[in-house]
Amino acid sequence: MVNEDVTSPPSTQRTIPAETQTDGLAPESATIRIAPLQRNVDEEERLMAEAQAQGATALQFEADQVVFELKDLSCYYGSFRAVREISLQVPKNRITALIGPSGCGKSTLLRSFNRMNDLIDSAHIEGSIRYHGADLYADGVDPVEVRRRIGMVFQKPNPFPKSIYDNVAFGPRVAGYRGSMDELVERSLRRAALWDEVKDKLREPGTALSGGQQQRLCIARAIAVEPDVILMDEPCSALDPIATLKIEELMRELKENYTILIVTHNMQQAARVSDFTAFMTMGEDRAGYLVEMAPTEELFTRPANRLTEDYITGRFG
């Protein structure tokens, strides 16, 4: 974890002019002046330019441990480039967190892993994303099959207007599952740590559950089709602390069987649950780019780039 300096910087210290002090105390009429904190914009821009020139600090994994490999990936909406030339690897059966300021393209990048951006007419990419060595965007690749193997849990719980049972069974039915549906539903709900709470009300609407339960139901629905990867786009942002803790505990359990990528604005959450963290920011052209990726403990305690340190200590972002 980052060792945050809780001492106020000199520019924010309260100062009392000496002429207004009496016996060490300020009289009632004294004015306490708080100098505004000035952010050095030129310095921040210089650091960004250096980071872009140097390129991201990359991690390399053993070939059999790599699930995704991105090379010079850029994501566009029409002519606007939202993500610029990102190269990174995502390791198997680990939790990788994407952090960075709002608008730097984290969610766009996350959705590119299972081609969700294809649903937007103007969206397209340059560069490549390889999944277990195969080009996800090659001609002939079925986006529906991609999304079956690479599931997604969204920021706001979105159960279908169906029963709890039918929410979980929906995907397998569409995929033509021929095994015992009852066993599959129970197994998925158990993996999502929800079975004990809903086993007696499986025919009740999924929308009647609490927010945290709805999100775990969405996770059960995602894993019911036996994916390889689970993408999570700020899955706890709409949840209370207790529900958030349950989701975080669940993520740690799920990584035994799944590779997980999570976008989060909660840096404490990234530090608690992820094995690796990638920090993104954006340049003057508003395109997001990767600054560095490292083991989570290392990134939060010994970041390689000054921009990363400034972000995680709250100096900008």
Q: What is the total tally of β strands?
A: 12
Major beta-sheet overview: 6 strands, mixed
Task: Encode the helix/strand succession as letters.
Answer: EEHEEEHEEHEHHHHEHEHEEHH
Given the helix and strand composition, which structural class is it? alpha/beta
Which range does the strand content fall in?
15-25%
The end-to-end span amounts to 18 Å
CATH superfamily of the domain at 41-164 and 226-312: P-loop containing nucleotide triphosphate hydrolases
Spans of at least 5 consecutive residues whose pLDDT stays below 50 are 1-39
State the name of the first-level CATH class of the domain at 41-164 and 226-312: Alpha Beta
Overall radius of gyration: 23 Å
Shape: globular
Q: What's the CATH architecture name of the domain at 41-164 and 226-312?
A: 3-Layer(aba) Sandwich
Reconstruct the topology from this structure.
Elements: E1 14-15, E2 33-34, H1 41-54, E3 66-77, E4 80-91, E5 95-99, H2 106-112, E6 123-131, E7 134-135, H3 143-149, E8 150-153, H4 164-174, H5 181-191, H6 195-198, H7 211-223, E9 229-233, H8 241-254, E10 259-263, H9 267-273, E11 276-282, E12 288-295, H10 296-301, H11 306-312
Helix pairs in contact: 4-5, 4-7, 5-7, 7-8
Entry keywords:
Rossmann fold, four-stranded antiparallel beta sheet, 32% helix, alpha/beta, disordered N terminus
Overall description:
- There is one protein chain.
- The protein is 32% helix and 23% strand.
- With 317 residues, it is α/β, with parallel strands linked by helices.
- It has a domain at 41-164 and 226-312: 3-Layer(aba) Sandwich (Rossmann fold).
- The strands form three sheets. The chain has a six-stranded mixed beta sheet with strand order 8-9-10-5-11-12, with helices on both faces. A four-stranded antiparallel beta sheet has the order 4-3-6-7, covered by helices on one side.
- β11 and β12 form a beta hairpin.
- The longest helix is centred in the first third of the chain and has 14 residues, at 41-54.
- Residues 1-39 have low confidence and may be disordered.
